[in-house]
Design brief:
By secondary structure, the chain is α/β, with parallel strands linked by helices. The protein has a domain of 172 residues: Isopropylmalate Dehydrogenase. A 7-stranded mixed beta sheet has the order 3-2-1-4-12-11-5, sandwiched between helices. A hairpin with a 5-residue loop joins β6 and β7. α3 packs across α5.
Length: 339
């Protein structure tokens, strides 16, 4: 039995999206047990009239909510009864709980994870790794995407190791093609950190390093893992997601501008729906925080029920694959760099 705890408040569609996503996950996975943290009365109200296996679902009363505008250090210190901190403390203290899913404040989640949860031995810094679809029909992981604004070459090598193991063990990508985000593809491009990281990645046997990648090639299908500092990675992911959404808006606007376009769109309606689903980030789950002893998955603040279900599925896959043990074993093979 895999036991996952779900923070049910803090997201834009909380708690309905979390409750509906949780129930869908339970229905699809008989080996799953879920704990929902949040205001007990509100959660019970959401559960009214819904069919589910009550023996595999628990409610943990946590009446407080951490807002995205709150200072993370103050929130994790002062709001121990919030849905996020209650979930994190239980994840830390109760061995049988395997992982956690939250769509709440990213800052509070990262700060709380670093303070409350232990890192895998040898890991210098945990890193976020979201997933995006590629034009070749596959997926690509971007690590880091926001947890570490400043990095060293040693951090980037560890991000590559952790993300490669994640893609291989959770998504079944064999020998993931791993690239370093840079301003050009040539080996000599970039600052001193990127050039040193390039050298280290060439020497890292467990990583299938294929060189530098320019941001325009992210969705090309030529890469399975992209390694970046948290600032650049976050900009890369959000720019890509935003561009896809704006292109869909423009396409819709143009279609409605002429009756001939409307007729053509009617004939191609099924194709347009498929493309919309392909580019919808809600279908790809959340961003896992690699490098922690226990599993933490961060969903988008705007996650709907399907996205929450995908986040829970990610957490289950990570637990089943014993990814943390594999990361520890691989990291230990390389010289440990202090921060």
């Amino acid at each position: 039995m895999i036991k996952i705890i779900v923070d049910c408040f803090g997201g834009d569609r909380s708690p309905r999206a979390q409750v509906e996503g949780a129930l869908s996950s339970l229905a699809g996975n008989p080996d799953l047990h879920l704990l929902l943290t949040g205001d007990e009365a509100l959660l019970k109200k959401e559960l009214e009239g819904r069919a589910y296996d009550a023996s595999r679902l628990e409610i943990v009363h946590a009446p407080e909510v951490i807002g995205c505008d709150e200072k993370p250090t103050d929130a994790i210190r002062l709001k121990r009864n919030s849905s996020m901190m209650k979930a994190m403390i239980m994840l830390r203290d109760e061995e049988e709980i395997d992982g956690m899913v939250s769509c709440g404040s990213t800052g509070a989640l990262v700060t709380g994870a670093l303070v409350r949860l232990g890192r895998i031995p040898g890991v210098i810094r945990p890193a976020f790794c979201p997933i995006l679809p590629t034009m070749a029909g596959g997926i690509v992981g971007i690590c880091d995407s926001g947890a570490n604004v400043t990095v060293t070459a040693a951090h980037l090598r560890q991000f590559a190791i952790m993300a490669s193991l994640y893609m291989e063990n959770v998504y079944g990508v064999k020998a993931p093609r791993t690239a370093l985000l840079n301003v050009g593809k040539e080996a000599e491009k970039g600052d001193d950190i990127r050039q040193e990281a390039y050298r280290l990645l060439q020497e890292t046997e467990c990583v299938n390093f294929v060189g530098n990648m320019e941001s325009r090639d992210l969705l090309s299908g030529s890469y399975d893992v992209v390694v970046a500092d948290g600032f650049s990675g976050n900009v890369l992911v959000k720019t890509t997601e935003g561009t896809a959404l704006e292109l869909l808006k423009k396409l819709k606007k143009d279609i409605y501008s002429r009756w001939l376009y409307k007729l053509g769109a009617l004939l191609m309606k099924r194709m347009f729906m498929e493309e919309k689903e392909f580019m919808n980030y809600q279908n790809y789950g959340g961003s896992v925080l690699l490098g922690l002893e226990k599993v933490v998955v961060k969903g988008h603040g705007s996650s709907n029920a399907k996205a929450v279900e995908k986040c829970i599925e990610q957490a289950c896959r990570m637990c089943s694959s014993r990814l943390s043990d594999k990361i520890e074993a691989e990291i230990s093979k390389y010289e440990h760099y202090e921060e």
